[in-house]
Amino acid sequence: MSHQAIYRKFRPKIFDDVLGQEHVTRTLKNQILTDNIAHAYLFSGIRGTGKTSTAKIFSRAVNCLNNHDGNPCNECEICRSILDETNMDVIEMDAASNNGVEDIRELRDKVKFLPVKSKYKVYIIDEVHMLSKGAFNALLKTLEEPPEHLLFILATTEPQKIPATILSRCQRFDLKRIKSSVIVENMKTICNEINIEYDEKALKLIAANSEGAMRDALSILDRCVSFNEDKIDYDTVINLLGTVNYQSVLKAANLIIDRDIKNSMVLVDDILNLGKEISIFLDELIICFRNMLIIKTTNSTDNLMRISEEEAEELKKVSSKISVDEIVKFIEELSTAQLECKRALNPRVLLETKLIKMLNVSKNFNIDELINRIIMLENNINNNSFAEKQSKPAKRPAAEIEKPVFNEVKIQNQATENKENSKPVKEVKSFENKSDEAIYDAIIKGWQTILKKVRIENAGLQAIIRESKLDGVINKKAVFEFDPKFTFHINAANQPKNKQKFKEVISDFLNEDCEVEFIIKKEEKSTKPKQTIDDVYADLVSEFGEEIVELKQED
Ligand SMILES: Nc1ncnc2c1ncn2[C@@H]1O[C@H](COP(=O)(O)OP(=O)(O)O)[C@@H](O)[C@H]1O
Ligand SMILES: [Mg+2]
Ligand SMILES: [Zn+2]
How far is Cα of residue 455 from the mean position of the Cα atoms in its chain? Predict the structure, then answer.
């Protein structure tokens, strides 16, 4: 047998086969039983819900010679002739292709004639909203004074496009989206009939993706069968639909609600590694939040999209963690992200950035603040071990602060060649200034933070500065020393541009205008505080040579 699409092969043949539309079929059967037929009917509803099928069944039911409880028998001469399309009294036209005035005029001329062998002459006009304005007018004329034997059955997915004058002459029936559970049951019956095994979960996923349209579900089922003739399994469906596993979507939604940036990134990575498209993932995620919104605002799990009833229950729990406002915000942000991702050269990076931003903004602080917080936290963790690494205690007794003072003097000497300044007495006094100590403490404690801030400004500068160590603070000038082996570093650090940048970062960090200076650390012994003027002299001589440094005794 040649392959016939499942949705064609399994077209409902009697009213009782039209699933999920009992409100329509019950009334129609009743009208047939009571011989209370109107002249015009309009079936509206989304695609694939049974409009055309119901129209066809109705055309037989009104003419059947051997009606069963309102259903056509499908066996009598009339039923069979309609089924094999040889009955001249049942005319089906597709308004999409016959939408002109001429077509309807022709129809108008023909309707005058009595049916050849059936009780009713039936016109089924499918997609009736496609008729031209002229054609609608011509149709209206016929509907105004229909002959006794005439029956019009109109079907449309867009009833709002039909003129009110036509609508008012029709009995209207709205076909509903079909419940997932009903769709699943129908697919099970069909699978059993065509001898195909199935995973219940797979059928649920198909139903969830068909948005209440039976035809869509059966088309997906058909594609699955052609893809894998042995069994309808979950993975096949996922692959065919290109959708993202619902559990992944739910997980992502959960992580977003919990603002778990790290695991969100891991999940995005996993999903993309499976070859899923970012826009499909975002689409699913948006629908997921949309469903939460429906759950929260209507307090029910009706009208949810793409999920089964079990999944809806699960989603209900998740949605209790989040407010309506937040959901709306997430939907907006994800929708923008989806749009932008479609245009982006690197959608993945864009998605990741958007997610991070979205999760931070929702927490009401900006990214810089977040980074600072992280740095502070890391700092707190590192603090003890960091303090241990420092060769000097965070708070230094006054006696120990001489050495940086001398170093400072050296630099000044270098600049001014003023040998008078080789006496450190004055600076020692000013270094006892409390705020210098506070600055010293703050820099020692916040060193890692400062380095990270420098890195944000200039990664190269951070690489240089991290090799230095705070030596002391004098008159709000922080002096950093480098090991002599880092000559390149000290030269680079002392470049005005770099020095200025570092000064800015430090000042910003301390909230205090603080100058910075970089010096070369003396060999091992110089880390010990200098006790005497002679030590200082020796130090200076070794640095500048005897010709430059002259020791002047006070008395
Ligand atoms: N309510 C329904 N019950 C069972 N099958 C349905 C139903 N609606 C649609 N189908 C399936 O989808 C196919 C197309 O349905 P159709 O009646 O043409 O939908 P519509 O005209 O609303 O787009 C049918 O052949 C049948 O396989
Ligand atoms: Mg149709
Ligand atoms: Zn019959």
Answer: 31
